[in-house]
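Q: Convert this sequence to structure tokens.
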Amino acid sequence: MIFLKEFLKDKKVASIASSSLSTVKKVCNKIDFSKKLVIVEYGPGTGVFTRYLLEKMNPESKLILIETNKHFVSLLEKIDDSRVIVFNDSAANIKEILEKCGEDNADYIISGIPFSYIDDGLKTDIIIKSREILSDNGKFLVYQVTNDIKKYLEQHFESLNTDFSLLNIPPLNIFEAVK
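A:
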């Protein structure tokens, strides 16, 4: 119900419901959790991916959450885990955010932000900055209702794999862009 309320109030909220566990697993199966990681999550919402990631990450890993919705930020700040750092900010500021966290690169970025709602300039800026801060062979994992983001990812990443999560409301396209 929280998601629906925020969806109606905030045009930056991408969906009427949180991602399904099936979608979370499909996206997170593309992550190698066997080592120390820096993972960034754009638009974590109420923390469905966040909680799953924390279950899988090792104790030395770091999870940086970037959320623009203040209500969602207040929920995320209640997560009691020293590996989590929450920012009420835009993904466009990823370089500065990583610097504040003492990191040069991220191994993975997971994004649920609604790129179809974002103008082309900002969309391209976020994608370029995301690619720049990824470590070698890092992955930008994007889940979206529409397929529109595909052409932008193809322009800026060496490799792009696609998948689909039918068991979600609404069904989602999943993109695995590899640096």
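Helices lie at 2-9, 21-28, 48-56, 70-76, 94-100, 120-133, 150-156.
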